[in-house]
Design a protein that fits this description.
alpha/beta; eight-stranded mixed β-sheet; seven-stranded mixed β-sheet; 9 helices; about 30% strand; binds flavin-adenine dinucleotide
């Protein structure tokens, strides 16, 4: 059977685009094949992002905040985020919401199978799975494949983190103020911070995060979380209701947006911001553009904003600094937040700032190490 659209991998990026498509009248008669090896029935991740106003997934935002804390090794500030809000969506709410909406479209078919490879010929895109070969007019691929380049200028760090959803008997959390980043924790393994996302005053997701090349042992993440709760939140009595573990690639690898009938989405398409790991809003903006192109009959291969050369260069410089370790990541982030408005930092991290604004922000960072890293990355 031939489908109009095949989605290879049905996580955040595929579902963000698909939902927009099935809700649009232009796709009422189209057929969609959704392939994923996972049933997506677990709360496998929590997405946080900043946004101005309501977004496409507003109805499933479980918590949003107008303020947040930043803690550096020697500086702390309670930031007002206006006009932004920092928002949180639970993975399972996202998958349920999408499944409910997709159930209303008669053309949606699901297949639980492992994708082995994909390709295209003149007439169709194809995908080989453990259940056989399927063909479609377009293939949207969100299964990441990140080949390590031999180039010394391509950096591959990992953002890896473990989180505990913690509940306490007594009120322990400031429910209207998440902690965006807390660098007061030990930096012995490399750039390390914690963050706290309070659902109310007795329940919060507490995460222990590193930007390094190597993963830790499971015991080391647990020790990091225990120490953070005891030392910085002064919480000794708590229950761990849920756990989360994640690895996000931080790389300046140049991702292909796709070609011909194959379009790459999400992390596979380079929509993960190399220096921060934030992806969710890049995915949303890309999904809007792809939908518009499809509706207007234009080419739906749209390069990732996270791959914009100017911003990829800034990311490369920061990755170089984190990898070399000559300047501590904690100091870089502390300086960034101490000497800039958080709204300017958000615009910069969103790849939406202007060149003059970038130059002003970059001028606040330690000049010599950044100039050196910029020279090495550029030369
Ligand atoms: C635990 C975690 C927390 C995160 N938190 C944030 C956050 O707070 N904010 C933010 O902006 N970003 C966050 N990210 C980064 C990013 O937003 C997510 O990884 C996001 O899910 C990326 O969307 P995607 O569609 O590219 O990949 P995914 O959502 O991972 O979807 C890819 C899909 O492909 C399927 N798949 C993979 N291989 C195969 C195969 N061979 N055959 C069949 N199916 C396959 C997987 O099962 C999966 O469903 C987080 C990532 C993780 C892992």
């Amino acid at each position: 059977m031939h489908y109009d659209f095949i989605f290879s991998g049905t996580g955040a990026a595929a579902l963000s685009l698909l939902l927009r498509m099935v809700e649009h009248p232009a796709f009422a008669q189209h057929s969609f094949l959704l392939i994923d090896q996972d049933s997506k029935k677990k709360n496998d991740r929590t997405w946080c992002y900043w946004e101005v106003g309501d977004g496409f997934f507003e109805s499933i935002v479980c918590r949003k905040w107008d303020h947040c804390w930043f803690h550096g090794p020697s500086f702390s500030r309670d930031f007002s985020l206006k006009p932004y809000q920092y928002k949180m969506i639970r993975g399972l709410d996202f998958y349920h919401h999408c499944n409910e909406k997709l159930a209303n479209h008669p053309g949606v078919v699901r297949l639980q199978a492992k994708v082995l490879q994909h390709g295209q010929n003149q007439d169709a895109a194809w995908v080989d799975t453990t259940e056989g070969r399927y063909e479609g007019t377009y293939l949207f691929n969100s299964i990441p494949e990140i080949p390590k380049s031999a180039s010394a200028k391509e950096y591959h760090l990992l953002q890896h983190f473990k989180g505990w959803m913690v509940t306490t008997e007594k009120p322990c959390f400031q429910s209207d103020r998440p902690t965006f980043m807390d660098f007061r924790v030990s930096q012995q393994h490399g750039t390390t911070f914690a963050y706290v996302l309070p659902l109310d005053d007795r329940k919060a997701l507490v995460e222990y995060t590193l930007f390094t090349e190597q993963l830790l042992t499971p015991e080391q993440y647990d020790a990091g979380l225990r120490n953070y709760l005891a030392e910085f939140l002064q919480i000794d009595q708590y229950q761990v209701e849920e756990e989360e573990f994640g690895i996000i690639p931080m790389t300046n690898h140049r991702f292909s947006p796709g070609e011909g009938r194959c379009i790459h989405l999400g992390t596979a398409g380079g929509h993960t911001k190399a220096s921060s790991g934030y992806t969710f809003m890049f995915i949303q903006r890309h999904a809007d553009l792809v939908l518009q192109a499809l509706v207007e009959g234009k080419n739906p291969i749209i390069p990732a904003r996270a791959q914009h050369p100017r911003f990829l260069f800034y990311d490369t410089v920061l990755l170089h600094i984190l990898k070399e370790g000559r300047l501590s990541g904690a100091l870089v982030f502390e300086t960034l937040f101490k000497r800039n408005q958080i709204q300017s930092v958000f615009r910069f991290l969103d790849n939406q700032s202007t060149l003059p604004a970038d130059l002003r922000l970059i001028a606040t960072l330690p000049t010599l190490p950044f100039a050196r890293a910029a020279w090495v990355s550029h030369a």
